[in-house]
Amino acid sequence: MRLAFREALRAFQRAPVLSALSITTIAFSLFAFGLFGLVALNLRNALQQVEDRVEIRAFVAEGTPPEATSAAVGDVALFPEIASVRLVTEAQALERARRELKEFEDVFDAGILPASIEVRLKPGRRDPETVRDVARRLQLYDFIDDVRFGEEWVENLHRLRNIATGAGLALGATFALVALIIIGSTIRMAVLARSREIVIMRLVGATDGFIRAPFLIEGVMKGTLGGILALVLTWVAAELTGRWVMQVTWFDPELAVLGVLAGALLGLLGSAVAVGRHLRKV
Amino acid sequence: MIRFTKVSKHYTRGGPALEDVTFHLRRGEFAFLTGPSGAGKSSILKLVYIDERPSSGEVRVDGKSSVTMTPREIPRLRRRLGVVFQDFRLLEDRTAEQNIAFTLEVTGTPHSAIAPRVARALTQVGLTSKGTALPHELSGGEQQRVAIARALVNDPLVLLADEPTGNLDERATRGIFQLLREINASGTAVLMATHDLDLVRDTGLRALELNKGRLVYDSGAESQEATL
Description:
The complex is a heterodimer of chains A (282) and B (228). Chain A has 282 residues and is an alpha+beta fold. Helix content of chain A is 71%, strand content 9%. Chain B has 228 residues and is an alpha/beta fold. Chain B has a domain at 1-80 and 195-228: Rossmann fold, CATH 3.40.50. Chain B has a six-stranded mixed beta sheet, sandwiched between helices. The model of chain B has no long low-confidence stretch (mean pLDDT 91). Chains A and B meet through helix 7 of A and helix 2 and helix 3 of B.
């Protein structure tokens, strides 16, 4: 193993320009993938924020005894898809309206706004079907006058989310494939540059596993370095966008480490394929 | 030790390279493979170190058959063979010592045993003072000596030499040939492909002559028959 490490390091020393070029190529292909990841992450966060506003309001009929509404709130809180439920009394509704719509402050009078039960759903349960279903169940209480949840808005949001997820997966897979092909080709060049050495190793009785090891180590090293460089580049891109265009969220530490590990894995796979193909050929 | 039995080798594109070749090289023997270019000399050597397998017939090397040998067994067999080529095949970025040590390293020789064995191999080929030289700092003859030292360092049963003097001048050729004779004298069999007929004629050693893939003459056949 020590020899395999030494041989991998020797490859860096012997062809520093070629090694730097392959690391840069890997870094830029991962950078493109990382930029896409950054866009996808921020888009998801933005959608999440909008989705957090999905809310069902069930308006309580005038004159309903408070015990009945409190009991209903207790019932609704037990629905599995519910994140939170709260009762907004007539007074609270008036207070909120005055606060939010200052220009109509004087128009609002006590008793003009009904009390309501406000329901928020758990993340992942905010699709139109679930929202409609919860609204229908709320409607079943005979003291509920009306249930509103902005049906069209919820449906549009859901459609947008589906499109974003589908496009994200397709683009993500394409970027990953392009990165894999570029990394594979880069490492293949390194393998071809050392084909003479491989022939000699075979001639003197080295096993294929022994020949493969330094290339795999080299691939992991290049992939890791390329991944780190790509991470730095996406950080710079996020900082610049934050400074000049709009605030963006960067990857959290786990995701950043995962990105570098993905680089290492791509390097390993690229090397394994390139050296495997070469060994089968010679 | 090396036994070819009715060996033929056909290439899909290049046509037949060997046709029905049968011979036996005994332990410690020295034999030339002669014949014009394309006669099949290199094909025979490739079949010995299992770079290729016969299309038909059987090659046995040190008791191992080309018919039953698994890919895993090939590296093990090659460690018992030494191979040298016309173009030396040295690693240009490594010194003579490192080129020789490389063979021991890839075959898992303990680190402490490598330096003395490299020194011994360099002494054997008469290059004690050139251990730290890079290949391009050496003459053609010296590079071939390094290649021979690399082939010898594992104490092979047989040294396979494919036109080892093809790139060398007359003086270097004689030197390399003399070295191969000395190696043979110490017990290692040598199978040397060459088209230098003068070299073959002068020595009186066994010669296997190939023409268009066929073994047309074997000067050792009579003596072998006598011993069988």
